[in-house]
Amino acid sequence: MQTFVTLVRRELGAFFISLTGYAVMAGVLFLLGLSMTLMLKSLNATPVAVPIIELFYETAFFWLIVLLAAPVITMRSFALERASGTYETLMTTPVSDLEVVLAKFTGNLIFFLITWLPLLAYPLIMKRYTSQPDAVAAGPLSTTFLGIFLLGCLFMSMGIFASSITRNQILAAMNAFAMGLCLFFLSFVSKMVPLGDGLASKLAAHISMFDHMGDFVRGVIDTRHVTFYVTLTVMFLYLTLKVVESRRWK
Amino acid sequence: MIEVDNLTKRYAGHTAIDGLTFNVRPGEIVGFLGPNGAGKSTTMRILSCFMAATSGSAKVAGHDIFTQADEVRRRIGYMPENNPLHTDMRVREYLKFRARLKGLSRARSRERVDVVTEQCSLQDVASKVIGTLSKGYRQRVGLADSLVHEPDLIILDEPTIGLDPHQIRSVRQLIKSLAGKHTVLISTHIIPEVEMTCSRALIIRSGRILASDTLDNLRKSVNEDSQVVAEIAATEADLKQCWEQLPEIEYFDIAPAEGEFLRCSLTGRAGADLRQVVFDTVHSKGWKLRELTRNRHSLEDIFVRITRTDKEEEGF
Q1: Which of A98, B141, B199, B301 is at 20 to 30 A from B278, Cα to Cα?
Q2: A-proximal residues of B, 89-118, CB under 8 Å
Q3: What is the pLDDT averaged over residues A175-194?
Q4: How many interchain CB pairs under 8 A, A with B?
Q5: A88–B50 CB contact, under 8 Å
């Protein structure tokens, strides 16, 4: 446990002493601010009767943040250690491979969530200036963050896996981005194929991240969605663990 | 402390180490000597449980390096080649991080960090960012890291590479000061380093141990055909005749030196010390003698002799 906490602190600390960390935070802040502005503009033009957070999600900057920020956050995790050689000093201390993988995952996930914190401020600002008492509901807001958390788990584990198989950070980021983009485009499938009862369309509906997130921002927690993210996260963490272990294969 | 038995590591297509067997006793400082690519780093990586060997077994402090890797890692301080460090951290912060990672309690790690900071003379740079330090300081940070958890065994992979002579000297002194308390295994291809710091040398080439002995014994083993150089004032013909008559001399070579002197390089038969013989001869003939020296083989010669491949030998 001690080593796990030490590693998480190091992982998280590295973001705050590197330029990359601040660049990501600034970028996310910019995109969040942009969607806030666009949302206010559209609200001024045509009033709609949905919670603010749902409107916010529909500006689609949301996906840009997930797709772009996640690879940049995770690219350094293993690739940098491999490139600089500190991987060797790390793996010769009495830490288990699982501890290292989980610590990297946790550290990256916490940072990912920190970059989303400004999102909390916007509904509060809206609440201060709106006359509508239920424009900002606590329910949808918390399920939105649950959705962000689950998406974060998936994208962080995916990114860490991409980072573990290379020593080049750029390559790690591109691989993670490509995998994220694949999932993202697969989400369109359910919109394009005609809905039916066939297996294909059912499957398409299950893997559509749009549908998942759409439910979350409306305040719906569907355990099927939760299972989807949890299993994929576990799978990528397992793969990463195997990559880390592979150095000791005979 | 280290018992290595028939350790082999094969990569796709080539064998990095091939049936390595050696022992290191507690408290010894052993130099691991070999040309580049001989398998030094591979052996050290396996011993420090970073990777697994293809076959064979090894024990560190009685613990198997494959099945009890955690126990072994707790007892090893390992500094890899090129000494990788987190360059974005401050020295003290880094050492504390490493100490905690190695399982020291908060209070104990604070205490140990203070001790190793002093031991490695890092007090002046303790709050500096590692990336801004000179190479010598970085090397000392790496050493401090490998010492911080008081390991029984310290494995240093080329600890003085890329340092200036002053820094090399201070690093060597530091390593020497570890003798007795810790067992140290140093890899290097710099020979004087072994001469100055180690009590025993393991010479390795293409993944095989070629020699493993104390430096004195290694010297003796190649000193047998010792050579004596004498500068004598006499005619070449006289000298030639004289050396040919002496039974102790295997072969000789005469070359002109400054002034009236001739420089004779004499090689004696197995084990004979020619200095006495030469002096007596010169004395009886009434020649003038200006120099009489025995060429001691430096470790460098030993190393070159032992690690020279057959191909090179033929071309000699």
Answers
A1: B301
A2: 89, 97-98, 100-103
A3: 86
A4: 71
A5: yes
Residue B93, domain CATH = 3.40.50.300
Structure token pair of residue B278:
């030469």
Residue holding tokens 């293993």?
A78
Give residue B120's domain range.
2-221
In a domain, B188, yes or no: yes
Question: What distance in Å separates the CA atoms of residue B114 and residue B92, rounded to the nearest whole number?
Answer: 9
Let me know if residue B100 belongs to a domain.
yes
Whether A102 shows a pLDDT value over 50: the answer reads: yes
- Select from A93, A95, A243, A247 the residue whose CB has the most chain B CBs within 10 Å, as the one to mutate to test that interface: A93
Same domain? B214 vs B234: no
ipTM: 0.86
Are B88 and B162 contained in the same domain?
Answer: yes
Q: Are residues B217 and B236 in the same domain?
A: no
Listed in sequence order, the residues at least 6 apart from A184 whose beta carbon sits closer than 8 Å to its beta carbon are A63, A67, A209
Pull the structure tokens for residue A117. 């914190």
What whole-number distance in Å separates Cα of residue B311 and Cα of residue B316?
Answer: 9
pTM of the shown model: 0.83
DSSP state letter for B48: T
Whole-angstrom distance, CA of residue B253 vs CA of residue B275: 16
